[in-house]
Amino acid sequence: MKLSTALMLGTALVCLLLIAQSEGQDCSKCQTHGLAKCDASGQACTCTLPIGPTSQPVNCSRLIPKCWLMKRESLATKAGRKRPANALIDNDGLYNPDCENDGTFKARQCNNTDTCWCVNSAGVRRTDKGDKNWKCAELVRTYWVIVEVKRNSSVNTDNLANTDIDAALRNMITTRYNLPASNIKEIEFEGPFIWINLQQNGTKNDVDITDVGYYMEKDIKGDPILPLDQKFDVNVKGSSFPLQEPVILYIDEKPHEISMKRLTAGVIAVIVVVIVAIVAGIVVLVLTRRKRGRYEKAEMKEMNEMQQELRS
């Protein structure tokens, strides 16, 4: 009898915990992606993000991994969506990445072609390109991300102190992207430029700074990933501090392996055009000087003949 009572009490406790968890979690929308869909019809809130023809389960309490975001944008572009002017990222532009089950990038990327290369944990190419036999021993971690931005020149912010801007940026990053303050190592100022240094800690469950950089770049460019009601704003003592022209710089734990040995056809074509233009300019210059020399000699000859006629 006592065992039966204990089982009943245990079952009731579990039910109460599930109900409390369901009530405490907002399942009406995904907090980290405006286009993800959430469903609370079951015992727990489940959210999915449409990626091409499939739906990827996501955890809306954390930033969506950059690999899944890039894959979704790439497939949407191939489906006929007009690519925005700011869609190109990194050095090689937008591509359709291969992702691990947890959303991290696979070390080797091929973009559904016969050309392959190795990337870092931010999905940025760090080696030369090769064929399908190209090998990537490991996924090298990006431990340092620098977000380079400029003050918006159309808004006068000269009256704002750098210390106040620093505090506002740190507050925005920690609250909007849930990045711990310890990951923001330094914010530097020089003229219109601001450099925000993010560094990865050693904890496994850390928020990935490459995801933060990607979200922040999209926010500044006016193409936010977060729901539209979560407006991006850097508020400095009651005044909005607009940013522009973001550039994301990635520093890896190991040096990159990109060399100049493998030039693409486009780069070679540009070099050839430049060389031809230089040679053509030299030829024109030489011909012009020769013509000028001949003209001057002919002019001197005519003047000498005229002087001889006058003397005679």
Short descriptors:
312 residues, alpha+beta, Invariant Chain, Chain I, Alpha-Beta Plaits, four-stranded antiparallel β-sheet, three-stranded antiparallel β-sheet, 5 helices, 11 strands, elongated
Task: Describe what you observe in this structure.
The chain has 312 residues and is α+β, with helices and mostly antiparallel strands. It has three domains: 38 residues, no CATH class; 78 residues, Irregular (Invariant Chain, Chain I); 113 residues, 2-Layer Sandwich (Alpha-Beta Plaits). The chain is built from five helices and eleven strands. The strands form four sheets. The chain has a four-stranded antiparallel β-sheet with strand order 7-8-6-11, with helices on one face. The protein has a three-stranded antiparallel β-sheet with strand order 1-2-3. The chain is elongated and about 120 Å long. The N and C termini lie far apart (150 Å). About 8% of the residues have low confidence.
